[in-house]
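Obj.: predict assembly geometry.
Materials: sequence records (below).
Method: joint structure prediction, all chains together.
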Amino acid sequence: MDDMIIKKDKLPKWSSELSDYKIFAPHREDDVVIFKEMKNVNKVVLHYANSVMPPKEIFFPQTQELFKYEKSPEMKVSEAELPLEKVLLFGVRPCDARSFLIMDKLFYWDYEDHLYKQARDNTVIIGLTCTSPHHNCFCTSVGGKPYSNEGLDVLMTDLGDRYYVEVLTEKGEDVIRKPDELFSKPTDKDRKERGEIWEKAESEVTKNVEVEGVHDKLGELFESKYWDEKSRTCVGCGICSFLCPTCHCFDITDEDCGNCGRRIRTWDTCMIPEYTVHASGYNPRPGKKNRLKNRVFHKFRYFPDRFDAIACVGCGRCISKCPVGIDIVETLEEVKEVEEVEE
Amino acid sequence: MSTENLYKPHLATITEIREEATGERGIKTFKVRINDDEVRKNFKHIPGQCAMLSVFGVGESIFGISSPPTWKDFLEFTIMRVGNVTSALHMMNVGDVIGIRGPYGNGFPMDEFKGKNCIFIGAGVGIAPLRSVYQYVLSPEHRKEFGDVLLIYGARTPADLAYKEEFEEIDKRDDVDLQMCIDWKFGPEGMIDEDAAKGWPKIKMSCPAETEIPEGCNHWTCFVPQLVEVAAPSPENAVALTCGPPIAIKFVVQNLEKLGFSDDQVYTTLENRMKCGIGKCGRCNIGEIYVCKDGPVFTREQIKKMFQEF
Amino acid sequence: MSKIEDEIRGIAKKLLEEGKVKYFTGYAKGPDSFRARPIIIDDPKDVDKLIWSPCCVNNLGVYLVDEMKKKPKRGEEPDTRPVGIVTKACDARGITVLHQENILPKERVYVIGIPCRGMADPEKLEKHARKKGLGHDAIYNMDIKEEKMMFTGEAEGVKVAFPREEVLLDKCKECVHHNPREYDIVIGKRIENPHVDKYATIRELEDMSLEEREKFWEMIFERCIRCNACKEVCPMCYCEECTVEKAKPMRWCSKSADKSNNEFFHLIRAMHLVGRCIDCGECERVCPMAIPLRKLYRKMAKEAEKLYSYEAGLNPEEDPVFATFRVDDDDEFE
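Observations (raw structure tokens):
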């Protein structure tokens, strides 16, 4: 489909045409921007660097039922209800959209995770070019761009009073309703303006790190004292994992109500000792250093080795929100500099 | 592409429970029969593979399947009581229903073992996953496919030895060399250089390899790695499979090395905390390896290449 | 460099050189102009990394709890020398609570107490700087100018001023205990404690009806993602196994991050902090979902003060409020 232009004042009309979709869009609640179901298009916020929580929860909810069970009169296991409605995810930043492709690799390798796939297949993703990157953003270092269209069905770019709309997939075409009435053809001026905005946005991503070589260097640093030093002030909370658009680990537990109950999966974090401790009490990753190291290694070595992609999209959330100022970009820079002293 | 719910277990009924060892960390063997005929028929495993067992309301844990695929219609799991799920399992009775999903993991490469002499070395509850292999090798259907079989097994005390009756049967066979041991007793000065129990003569502690073996004696007082030295299997055209607590494996492997076994001849199993069993939940990784998918069976060669974090 | 910063470095250097402390916990320059971060140093050569600025918001007491949980390696003689630590008045009260609760023996810590009129909120600093056209990393040498009631920094050699009232952390505006009471050494002059409403943050809530309050918290709790940052940064949350995570023999609090379990989590935590929370505000600062946790704990603190005339961490000789009993104690909550 050809590129299009939509005037901002036509957004309400457009969204009303999409009533067959459940729309999730960024909303501001107190001081945080989060993706929520849209009830009123005017409540949607589109001027923000990025949401506090990545929209990964649409595909991989923090709490998800796997199945229900009944213990009496006889043991019975029944399917969890799968949400079947079509979902429109609106206003996704390009970095977060790339995270979906990274998560796909995990959830689709070997066994296909039906819950994830269901949500993924039912969802159309409309992205929004990141026009004012946050100072902790470093998407360009890990293969992204503020205007990357990877993982998106539609990419929109804010041109002031209108959006430049690129339809990228068939799924994307489905959300272009009443094209003659709501949309118009872009002019050369629109194209030029979009190009300028893209260029400016890219130049504003100032935090960067050369990741080339990090993979191999990490391989030399598995036993390094560097991790003892680096992890010393880590408090072992789950902020970096829970806010990470590519972190995908989960726990499985039973929620029992006596005669019946359900099994759920919930987000988990490799930053806590419980994550790896064996029933015997033995823990292969007993210290903060083992856990912090694992997180860095997982993103920049293990995941690339396994799935041929860095498991980081450079959204900068872990940097902005770490209670003790641990900065992944700084960590990578240090990793490159560490010289192992033979003892 | 399947849209099957991979996390939903099949229902299965416990048809028999055998107490293998008592004590705080008791061991029981559960004979389990999958309720659905179709599912039961299709549940085909390779020796060494695992399955997720559920106690509904308590949770799910992964266990090595301790029966060989040649035993039809049921599966056996030999389980030590250590955590929540295992404790709940130990409290269950015959007729109780649990959940099962699997089989998971790689299992032992049985085809590669064909024509070779097989050495099994199990310490403690580590005998459970090995049992699925040696019972496969010893089965009438497959015995001819393999060479000589040496089976080494040790536990702390005679009471801790699992599969007692089964070993009595195996002991009667002339196509297996069975060697068993119980641990040295400990005094305030360390190991006591005497028989730990009647009928379990001690080996030569200072130099196990020099132990004189009287005709027909195959019960010893010693540690499993020492028994490897006593039995001194030849590495020629052989594979060694070992399973047990990490410290026992460490010394078993050292002693196999001394006997001339190369790293690709030695197989062991690794375990890690797992939740999903299908390479999604994340926690069982050692480097880029998912123990649940790529393991639990690894050669010594593979293990040496891993980041040593297990 | 401020005088206080100078003194911290001097003391740390001496302590480390003489081997009087096992290591030293303080603040260092953070990832940007407006954030300091904790640093733990062993080598006296590193003391120049220590800073003192209006960005020293973290409560470092959490690392003392870490230290007490460390188990010596087998065969190793445990190093029981004290740990050196920089504390603001509120952080020092936290250490007092740890003393009272027998978590941290006095001889295991060497406290540098600093009278403090309040620290700056990094986000407010950033906003203020942005108004002046200055970015997140344009400013250096952030300093506290007590006499002028302001914070200052420099950008390209030019002084930048931040009026204290505009950039102060909310909790600091409500603080009435500016001076540390328990310390091994104090740096800086004693500060007159102000007469402000220390429970200001909950006034609005208290005026609400029960239904309104319920609604208020419901929406907020729903947002919680259970990252546990609030409890991990809290020096008072030192349990080996937290009630809400306890899974053996059964799980009290489901891992479901839903309204009811989140509420359970937060209310349990609030109950466990009565008479113990010293309002360092770390939980609220680190919460990525902007949950106003202080409101919960301040309300509990207010009740404890009203009922038992007790405020946490003021007197090391006093027993913790819930470890004592008087016949005339009121046992009803409002």
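Conclusions so far: DSSP finds twelve helices and twelve strands in chain A.
To do: check interface contacts against the pulldown list.
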